[in-house]
Structures are given as structure tokens and as C-alpha cells.
Structure prediction request, 226 residues.
Amino acid sequence: GQQLNQSPQSMFIQEGEDVSMNCTSSSIFNTWLWYKQDPGEGPVLLIALYKAGELTSNGRLTAQFGITRKDSFLNISASIPSDVGIYFCAGRVNTGANSKLTFGKGITLSVRP
Amino acid sequence: KAGVTQTPRYLIKTRGQQVTLSCSPISGHRSVSWYQQTPGQGLQFLFEYFSETQRNKGNFPGRFSGRQFSNSRSEMNVSTLELGDSALYLCASSPTSGSLSQYFGPGTRLTVT
Prediction:
């Protein structure tokens, strides 16, 4: 089946540093999404990407939809302590009703003050 | 507008028992999706309900079932619980089936002993 690969499982950075996370797949996806999950809460959508090559920003977050449609990256600039959490990528093949999301296993980000 | 609510938040069950989890979507949302989250497998899609009909199903055994009521509230049932069913069960609501505007609840933490 379709799988999304995120590695490493954990990342540790210093406050103020930039960090980049990759998500790769052997399958093509037509939509890529990035979510963040805080402890004790459900994931929250950060950025959605709809077209190969698309580069989208949301504040200090920037994400890109890979040209091959098999990968995406998320970049966080000037990290702050509240960036701590689990970051998931998700992909979708079809659009519209009856489509479903495939999630990566997530990367746990720790930010040292 | 109230967010997605899930009850109970925590549950401890014994192997062989069954369990029912509840999800109340955001008012006006008609689609509810269920996910299982474990450290080893990440977020895995269970099923989606829209207008009281199951629209999509993941690769889980028949012990996992769900339903949706006319007020869009949804329940998920797991019968003959196994230790491996211990997980965080998340539901997500969206206005329509296939919408990317999915809002997750805080989840129900199920522990099977």
C-alpha cells in the first residue's frame, strides 16, 4: 500500500535555528499536507499543497510540493519553544468524496531554549 | 463555534471486551473520519462517515466498526479487544466528504490490558 516516510523520528534544535523536514513516498500523491500535533491534542493542519512544484508559506513555515509528486518538505525558520510537537506529512491521491489521507509516522521536534 | 469533542478521553479495558467511542463533530459538519494513532504505525485511517453512510474504509479487521447518526455524531466500536488495539483514537470532522478542512478532536486514549 501507499506509505509516507518521515525521518528521523526525532529532531533536536536550538531556539532560533531553522529546521527542515522531508517526507518521501514511492507513490505519487496529488495533494500534500503538513500537520502539527501538540501533546494531548489532535493534529492541526498547517499547510496544504495542491500542485507539483508549489511553494507555500504560513508565517515562519514554508512547504513545497515536490516536482515528482513523490515528496514534500516543510521548513520552520527561527524556531521558538512553542514549535515543539509532532509534525506529520499526509498525502492524498484522489480528490473529492471518498478520498482518504495517508499519514507519515511523524517527526517529534524538540526546541532547546 | 465548539470544536470536535470525543468521549471518553481515557479508557482502560481488558482483552476480549468491547468498547464504544463517541465523536461529536463541529456544528454543521456532516463528515466524520476516524483514525488510530500508535507510536509504531503513526496515524492510520479507519473509516469515514458522511450523511450516515460509510464512504471510505481503511485496512482494519471487521472488529472495528462505526456508525453515524442523523445529527452527524459518530460512534466507533471495537469488539473482542486485543492488546494491540491500545492506541489514541482520533476523529476528524469536515463539512463534506473528501474536504481537506479536517478538524481533529483531542482523541480517546484506549489502553487494553
About this structure: Chain A touches chain B at residues 1, 31, 33, 40-45, 48, 88, 90, 92, 94-106 (CB under 8 Å). Chain A has no helices and ten strands. Chain A has a mean pLDDT of 92. The beta strands of chain A are 10-14, 19-24, 31-37, 44-49, 55-58, 61-65, 71-76, 85-92, 101-103, 107-112.
